[in-house]
């Protein structure tokens, strides 16, 4: 059907157009006569002296075919240059409160403490003496050595220490709180006709294996502390305030 329409369209567009140089022929009534014999004139031409020029015009709009299939996608082009940053957008609305997280691991608290007493009096000798105790009130994890009379640091940190003694009538009282071999604080009372309670306290920064103990001064003077089997007059106490490294 498309072929028939094409042929009809071509036929309707064909036109006979005379050549531009062709001029209209004048014909007289005597032009059809034959020339006289012997005149040498050529007989007149019959019909058209020139073949008409045929020009074909085609209307391309009626030749459009059916729409073809979609072609393959082309290769993506190169990325263009990055444009300038846009303006900051408005702040969004506040979101809903999230769910509570799981509970964390409990903090491990470290402890170290002792409190000991002595029920016997003690007099000075020719050499220094460590004050040894015979009564235990508190001794966490055995950090205080009852046989040697010394606290052994197992947890580094800051410690508080306190010592209480009872003086002896007419005798001098002269002791030191020791950290290893260093004298850190003195407990002193002058000779008097009345005995009194005497106390000393301090805080110390300790490292592992440091020792803290009470030392009675040697016999350069009449030096003594009093106690008895009924009451506890002499006590030595200490505890950890804060560990150097919290676990």
Named CATH architecture of the domain at 113-243: Sandwich
Structural class: mainly beta
Count of DSSP-assigned helices: 1
Order of helices and strands: HEEEEEEEEEEEEEEE
Count of β-strands: 15
Globular, elongated, flat, extended or rod-shaped: what is the shape? rod-shaped
Main β-sheet, in a few words? 6 strands, antiparallel
Mean pLDDT: 81
Distance between the termini: 96 Å
Helix percent band: under 10%
Unreliable segments of 5+ consecutive residues: 10-18
Return the CATH topology of the domain at 113-243. Jelly Rolls
Characterization of this structure:
By secondary structure, the chain is mainly β. The chain has a domain at 113-243: Sandwich (Jelly Rolls). It has 1 helix and 15 strands. Strands 5, 7, 8, 10, 11 and 13 form a 6-stranded antiparallel β-sheet that branches. The model is unreliable at 10-18 (pLDDT under 50). Residues 64-104 are annotated as: Disordered. This is C1q and TNF related 6. Residues 1-16 form the signal peptide.
